[in-house]
Design brief:
Blueprint: E1 2-6, E2 11-16, H1 20-33, H2 40-48, E3 53-58, E4 61-75, E5 78-90, H3 99-113, E6 118-121, H4 126-131, E7 135-146, E8 159-162, H5 167-178, E9 185-186, H6 189-196, E10 204-211, E11 214-226, E12 229-239, H7 242-253, E13 261-266, E14 282-293, H8 296-302, E15 311-318, E16 327-334, E17 337-342, E18 348-351, H9 352-360, H10 365-370, E19 374-376, H11 378-387
Parallel strand pairs: 5-6, 12-13, 15-18
Antiparallel strand pairs: 1-2, 2-3, 3-4, 4-5, 4-9, 6-14, 7-13, 7-14, 8-10, 10-11, 11-12, 15-16, 16-17, 18-19
Length: 399
Amino acid sequence: MLLTTKLMSPEFEYSTLAAPEDVNQLGKILDQCFIGSPGQEAIYINSIGLENFRIIRRDQQVVGGLAILRMGQWWGGQRLPMSGIAAVGIAPEYRGDGAAIALLQHALKELHNQGSPISVLYPATQYLYRKAGYEQGGSLCFWEMLTDSIQVKEQPLPLKSIASSNPQVFDEIYQQQVKLTNGYLDRHPAIWQRIVTTQEKETVFAYLIGTPDQPQGYIIFSQERTENGTILWVRDWAVLTVAAAQSFWSFIAKHRSQIDRVRWQSSINDYLTLLLPEQTAKVFSHKRWMLRLIDVSKALEGRGYPPGVQGELHLEVQDNLLPANNGKFILSVANGRGEVTSDGRGELQLDIKGLAPLYTGLFTPEQLQLTGKLTATETALLTATQIFAGVGPTMPDFF
């Protein structure tokens, strides 16, 4: 695939990644962009797969690229196909001349033509991605607490050490948990591989919670010795029952003689912390990922909605990049599913960026109106509040 366009003054060519010299050049660019050791990003490119990378050229020279991770994301109990954008990098001598936005715009047009409903990414800078139609969609939080403050002693279930090299064992449990939380991923194999793969001078430990024939959760972690003490890093976890959640904390508490702190990734409102006797767990880092609706109709019809809600929302959407998303839409919701038709009264007006945090439920319609992200009638605000109500969007994975 080769597509040529002019954006600002330079001419850019957008294409797939295939030639060995292009792989080498992109690897060097990404090494510099992400401050990696020489050759590190070339390994990453091969792990993701060359077919999942796109590059942009100027005067026959590779000036940057990105990765497209085709995954799924859970919304309202339904799995929606999602294209994750990662490893966006532009050589420093070509930054500021339109290469990055050209790269993103071409990628989004390609994904739209392929029928992808939504895209998600972690921004290095919001300004660039907002120009491409992305907006804040959900949270990734890193929690921390002292192990001797856990004070959960009851462990109703056994934990069994298993090899961490086979993600399939954990994925079967993970898939039972992810349906309950908006924003969780149906993970790309590369994300699973990063969770279970050891780094230099590092050991990954994995335990099933429960019995092998009836597991009720798992914990995957590594341990780190720092100048400020020892840390148990929970790389991934899942709990399917109250007994599993209690056993999770009890097991971690047993490390208190050797481990000073435990860190894990979860939502801003981590329900696991309800089992702790005191509010000793603290958020020490909080990121927001961004989402873009690539196909408005498919995105609205593909997600789930609260089962008891029935209503009709009249939207008017503006998208300066993808013309098919422009216009008036009627979202009719009943029995937990949505149907989209064209036209309508346009009672809730917003651009494609404003639609993202409404769609995910990161902010309420009233909050979005107060920040100028949408304009709506009182009836439309009430309907949108009911339709997009749900568990706050979160994702425990960084890509």
